[in-house]
């Protein structure tokens, strides 16, 4: 790292003066003793143009005392001086002169900038405070700037205790612990993005109901898994379905249990309730989205099998968990489905628990919490309605023998048959080149590799 600020930034910086619509020069040594945030950005970059007003607004809102301890320096990746000059007018901070292109490149190399926008924060002694300034501003706004002025990162974490789960992408909205460690709680209100750690849960009074995330790799019964859902939304948009209604057909009391929902005060309160012997023996969690072409192709097939199965078997059900981009799309899409939906903003609780890999995905769970299938979509394509009938008995499907396995999304590049049934060979040299066993026996100019059919263990290990 450089030994002086001049080594890092040169002799002079520039800043835009709004009153006379001109740039003026500032001696770099006037920033000595300050913590600095280097903002790598460019006028031509849409994500930069989206983030810059957010950063500018946060900077304008902090008081002058904070600004005596912290400054921001714009490091331009603009393609010409006109773009730089226009962009600097949006920034209430200083900039490395556009003419000093070599230094801008050196700084980009020094901090390994691969993409923009990036915001790197350094202490006055050139120690890194955070490499994730963009994220910290997006999360904490002015509070991030205040922390940086104190030489601290907004986000922090601690060592996990034994059996504590580490949420690598989770962050507490109150104390900014990231990764969030231990129990994690989420607001059920669709307008609210609050996530809390256990410590902040006891200190924070929140206006809406909070629910606790399920811990991945920990086994729960089906009723425990879905107890985070207060109610379901029917496909016909006519009111809500209480979750307990799925379980309370032909019921009998068996024991007591605790709700995973957190009351409005934010405190976990044990609550006795009647637990039932469910008529539902298994449930499919269907992760899908209206914008996803494979989902659009698969949903009608699943719906037909579902309706036919439900005429005879009430012991299997499906719930829809949406990855739609907005609630209108979600409502449109679920109206095409004969099964209920989980409220729009609760999908991530289940996606985290099941470690979702992609869309569409159908994960089937028995009433005692056993995963019957993590590749339910493939199972339905392989076995048709027999898959749903088997799950209705809380049983796993027997994999088809290798010579009957359907590679549903693959066509043979030799004879054109689709799907490939039986053994599938792929060329190690050609890209996306697959052959059925008959065509593979005819030979190919490059080496071929036999592909093994996937099982649930493969899906779990991804």
Automatic annotation (TrEMBL):
SMART domains: ZnF_ZZ. Residues 407-462 form the ZZ-type domain. One of its GO terms (molecular function) is zinc ion binding. SUPFAM superfamilies: RING/U-box, Thioredoxin-like. Its EC number is 1.8.1.8. It catalyses: [protein]-dithiol + NAD(+) = [protein]-disulfide + NADH + H(+); [protein]-dithiol + NADP(+) = [protein]-disulfide + NADPH + H(+). Residues 1-139, 232-393 form the Thioredoxin domain. It holds the Pfam family ZZ. Keywords: Metal-binding, NAD, Oxidoreductase, Repeat, Zinc, Zinc-finger. The keyword Zinc applies. Belongs to the nucleoredoxin family. This is protein-disulfide reductase.
